[in-house]
């Protein structure tokens, strides 16, 4: 019984797929009606696939927990002795806005079709940053799988364990992206401006005036107030540790009313002034040389009695400009396409330079310090090629030292255009320099094909096998067909072509 069923099934399969006298050497698998059925199936898969086929992303929309992702990130940081990240609602809002923007505009990248940048969303959320970063993931079904995939990627891991970051914000959004249901995870990092070491509360030292008995008896006998030393003055401005980029300074402070205040730089007298209302302001006429200075003051009253010395204020005068020469600046293109170019600007400057800013067509980009020992700053930015080629294009690098001295260097459009070939895309490898905004994309679609793509590929293989069997057996049996009998050949070729087109995936 089973043998008969097997033989019958084998006969039917042969009749369907293999040219044979029983099917007139025209198997049912390549007949016009069957090819029409194939076409209907392809249309159903590719036009209705989103609704008819299961989606990887739908499996775990509710399973990706932003809070757990934060905990996992902090576990990694704690293991390395790094500070934990705290959730900042502004970064959460920025991540959510970025996710919705990608769904709305159908793109999957750090930069949108109109040049939208990650930091654009961070700033729009009201978060002013020193450092910022972004990780993206797509089509994952669980929290742990997202985190593990990020940690397995060097660029994503670098963001998670970057020591400078203090805040984090994560959003998970679900929607239609390029016709497919998907889950996007946006992880944003940041360090707000001014959040270096916590400021310590300044300590105040009370200076009590010491009295003297000199001439006290005469004063009492004459009915005058007793003669006492004035209290020691206190210098308020400048403050100890200040680095000043001007050779002329103004010294302000508090002193007993109507006393003469003498201000000194070490043992050199800088100037004198009578305190009024308990306040003095002395502006020395002489210039102070570059270097360290120790300021102090004394007060002398109408009895000729002089106070003890005030608090000492140590300052540093620095009027020299930071060095920024041609050899200190390098520009490399890291990615080029017909519309945009990614450029990495690198500045190597003086030891005391604290910041470097790139200004392009009026827009400022703060460069990140990527090497504190060598004082190296770098940043990658995205520019429209058409903007670079305009007559009014302008760009300059501004470096500022600890004293606030600035040096500016103009960058010509020829300097930038000379770093890449407009007609060449993606030809220069990233040199590995740190970015002011660290960006990393992880797309499960790069690792796994969608269900629709898998079915398309399998269908292509099926059509190729059917087509090949038909041709092989016709050739083997030396059977000939007229033109009408091979009308299915161009139809099959066309069907394979459109199926292959629909099977193609996205590459970032």
From TrEMBL:
Region Disordered, residue ranges: 197-236
Compositionally biased spans, kind Low complexity: 197-216
InterPro entries: Big_13 (IPR044016), CAP_dom (IPR014044), CAP_sf (IPR035940), Ig-like_fold (IPR013783)
Start and end residues of each Bacterial Ig-like domain: 241-319
Keywords annotated in UniProt: Membrane, Transmembrane, Transmembrane helix
Domain SCP: 71-187
Alphabetized Gene3D superfamilies for the sequence: CAP, Immunoglobulins
Bilayer-crossing regions: 35-53, 454-475, 487-505
Listed name of the protein: SCP domain-containing protein
């Amino acid at each position: 019984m089973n043998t008969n069923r097997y033989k019958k099934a084998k006969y039917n399969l042969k009749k369907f797929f293999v040219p044979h006298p029983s099917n007139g050497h025209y198997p049912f698998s390549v007949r016009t009606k069957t090819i029409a059925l194939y076409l209907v199936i392809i249309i159903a898969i590719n036009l209705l696939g989103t609704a008819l086929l299961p989606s990887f992303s739908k499996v775990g929309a509710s399973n990706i927990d932003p809070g757990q992702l934060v905990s996992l990130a902090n576990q990694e940081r704690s293991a390395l002795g790094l500070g934990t990240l705290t959730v900042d609602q502004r970064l959460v809002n920025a991540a959510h806005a970025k996710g919705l923007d990608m769904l709305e505009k159908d793109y999957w990248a750090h930069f949108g079709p109109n040049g939208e940048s990650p930091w654009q969303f961070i700033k729009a959320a009201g978060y002013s940053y020193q450092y910022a970063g972004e990780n993206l993931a797509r089509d994952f079904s669980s929290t742990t799988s997202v985190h593990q995939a990020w940690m397995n990627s060097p660029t994503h891991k670098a963001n998670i364990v970057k020591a400078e970051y203090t805040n984090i914000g994560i959003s998970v959004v679900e929607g239609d992206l390029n016709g497919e249901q998907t889950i996007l995870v946006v992880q944003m990092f940041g360090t707000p401006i001014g959040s270096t070491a916590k400021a310590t509360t300044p300590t105040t030292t009370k200076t009590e005036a010491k009295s003297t008995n000199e001439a006290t008896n005469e004063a009492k006998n004459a009915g005058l107030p007793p003669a006492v030393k004035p209290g020691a003055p206190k210098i308020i401005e400048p403050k100890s540790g200040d680095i000043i980029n001007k050779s002329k300074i103004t010294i302000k402070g508090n002193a007993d009313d109507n006393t003469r205040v003498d201000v000194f730089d070490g043992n050199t007298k800088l100037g004198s002034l009578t305190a009024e209302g308990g306040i003095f302001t002395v502006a020395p006429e002489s210039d102070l040389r570059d270097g360290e200075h120790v300021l102090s003051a004394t007060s002398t009253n109408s009895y000729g009695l002089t106070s003890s010395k005030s608090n000492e204020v140590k300052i540093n005068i620095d009027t020299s400009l930071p060095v920024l020469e041609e050899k200190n600046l390098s520009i490399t293109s890291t990615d080029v396409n017909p519309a945009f170019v990614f450029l990495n600007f690198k500045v190597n400057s003086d030891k005391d330079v604290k910041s470097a800013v790139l200004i392009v067509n009026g827009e400022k980009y703060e460069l990140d310090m990527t090497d504190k020992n060598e004082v190296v700053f770098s940043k990658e930015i995205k520019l429209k090629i058409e903007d670079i080629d305009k007559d009014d294009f302008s760009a300059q690098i501004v470096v500022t030292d600890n004293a606030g001295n600035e040096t500016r260097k103009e960058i010509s459009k020829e300097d930038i255009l000379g770093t890449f070939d407009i007609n060449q895309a993606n030809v220069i490898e990233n040199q590995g320099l740190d970015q002011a905004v660290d960006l990393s994309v992880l797309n499960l679609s790069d690792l796994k094909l969608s269900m629709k793509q898998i079915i398309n590929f399998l269908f292509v293989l099926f059509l190729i096998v059917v087509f090949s069997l038909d041709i092989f057996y016709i050739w083997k049996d030396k059977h000939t067909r007229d033109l009408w009998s091979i009308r299915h050949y161009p139809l099959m070729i066309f069907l394979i072509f459109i199926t292959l087109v629909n099977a193609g995936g996205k590459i970032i």
